[in-house]
Recover the amino acids of this structure.
């Protein structure tokens, strides 16, 4: 059963529609990737479509291998990008990303509260424990998952304490009396914990309006429990509806365990959209985007997911259930691996057909390769089943996917009564709480 009447929709500003071969198209605009105009233009259009937020995932390291063929992990700093967008927009939420593993909570609290002031209540933060980058921060090894989540919990505790250490009411600005601030209301936090020692107070008052919403990205049980304790939203990879339903259920249990209502924690998986005027057009867009994923890479992906090694197999040969190893390897996404194995059992596909499947080629996100109608019906199906509370649009293939999403898909969802047709609030939290 769905927990809210309307979808919550965000738009990823990671330029996924330019990945693979997408950036090589004449209309890609790739040369402007590190300019503020690039993200700004998209944010303006997302605001015109009344989306809840724009969102920038972020990392602090640069693997060189993907950079040879695409922009890979290179990007502007997410929070500075949002500050540039803040000046030029007035309603849309601005969701940045901060790594709790590598950042200092005082700096993060200050940057986020600065963004909240600059945008007049529209800042939000995706808290990530991160997967790599330790060597850029003097750490010879990546801390374990448990260490990272323990630090994340303390990190958010310190940030919240800092935000309330200089409450909005302390700001008096009383010209007649000559009093700028009532310092009896401003307190150090004197935090001393396992990972941080922070005296406080923060050198910036709290924004006098709704608080800054938090997102969590990390799918382990520990990650979901962390989300249950503090997050307003969870960004996730749910390749099929069963995975989303299971995660939604787990998140509800985790929210309740922390004394919160399930509807206060929104599951917003990435939704990868390769849209075309026809299904054939969308399929061509998808295949041409991934044209350079060669056969060896595809075979390696099937092997990693199912344990089946197709090296040397003829393209026409059919794969049957009997070919699947009894014990599949520990896959990065067990759901996706199971989906691939199920497709083999069900369809006994030809090797070439299996190697062209979306599960082999693309991300672990929920994915629609089709028309706007296909996307509307898929989103409606997942939402009505209570599997998701909305999604983060992660666009694929070409700028045309972006045009179809913002120009047609979102208006269609609004016409169907599943999404707002105008903003009723001016802050990020107000958008999230609008039912
Ligand atoms: C959907 C999703 C998005 C993520 N985005 C980021 C990101 O932008 N930057 C980053 O450093 N880590 C990112 N991560 C990594 C997580 O922060 C986390 O370190 C990782 O998923 C391991 O935690 P887990 O075992 O709970 O999933 C992301 C993870 C997921 C599942």
């Amino acid at each position: 059963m769905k927990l809210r009447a309307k979808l919550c929709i965000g738009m990823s500003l990671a330029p996924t529609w330019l990945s693979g071969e997408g950036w090589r198209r004449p209309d890609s605009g790739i040369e402007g990737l590190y300019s503020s105009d690039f993200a700004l233009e998209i944010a303006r259009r997302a605001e015109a479509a009344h989306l809840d937020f724009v969102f920038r995932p972020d990392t602090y390291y640069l693997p060189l291998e993907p950079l040879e063929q695409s922009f890979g992990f290179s990007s502007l700093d997410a929070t500075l990008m949002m500050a540039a967008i803040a000046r030029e927009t007035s309603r849309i939420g601005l969701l940045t990303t901060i790594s709790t593993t590598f950042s200092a909570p005082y700096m993060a609290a200050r940057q986020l509260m600065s963004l909240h002031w600059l945008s007049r209540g529209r800042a939000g933060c995706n808290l990530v424990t991160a997967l790599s980058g330790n060597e850029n921060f003097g750490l010879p090894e990546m801390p374990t998952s448990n260490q990272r989540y323990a630090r994340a919990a303390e990190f958010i505790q310190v940030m919240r304490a800092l935000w309330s250490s200089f409450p909005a009411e302390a700001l008096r600005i009383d010209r007649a009396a000559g009093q700028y601030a009532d310092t009896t209301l401003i307190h150090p936090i004197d935090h001393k914990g396992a990972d941080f020692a922070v005296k406080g107070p923060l050198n910036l008052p709290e924004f006098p309006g709704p608080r800054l919403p938090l997102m969590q990205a990390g799918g382990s049980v520990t990650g979901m429990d962390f989300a249950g304790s503090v997050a307003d939203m969870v960004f996730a990879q749910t390749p099929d509806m069963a995975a989303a339903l299971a995660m939604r259920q787990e998140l509800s249990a985790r929210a309740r365990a922390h004394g919160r209502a399930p509807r206060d924690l929104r599951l917003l998986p990435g939704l990868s959209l390769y849209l075309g005027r026809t299904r054939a057009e969308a399929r061509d867009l998808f295949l041409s985007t991934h044209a350079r994923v060669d056969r060896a890479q595809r075979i390696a992906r099937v092997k990693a997911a199912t344990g089946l090694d197709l090296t040397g197999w003829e393209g026409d040969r059919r794969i049957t259930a009997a070919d699947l190893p009894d014990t599949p390897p520990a896959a990065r996404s067990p759901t996706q691996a199971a989906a691939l194995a199920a497709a083999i059992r069900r369809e006994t596909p030809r090797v070439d057909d299996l190697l062209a499947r979306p599960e082999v080629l693309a991300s672990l996100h929920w994915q629609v390769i089709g028309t706007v109608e296909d996307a509307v019906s898929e989103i409606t199906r997942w939402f009505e089943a209570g599997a998701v509370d909305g999604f983060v649009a992660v666009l694929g293939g070409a700028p045309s996917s972006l045009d179809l999403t913002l120009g047609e898909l979102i208006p269609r969802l609004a016409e169907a009564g599943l999404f707002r047709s105008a903003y009723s609030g001016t802050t990020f939290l107000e958008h999230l709480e609008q039912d």
Observations:
- Residues 147 and 155 are 12 Å apart (CA to CA).
- The chain has two domains: 8-140+205-282+364-433, 291-360.
- Residues 57-59, 97, 99, 128-131, 145, 217-220, 222-223, 235-237 surround flavin mononucleotide (CB under 6 Å).
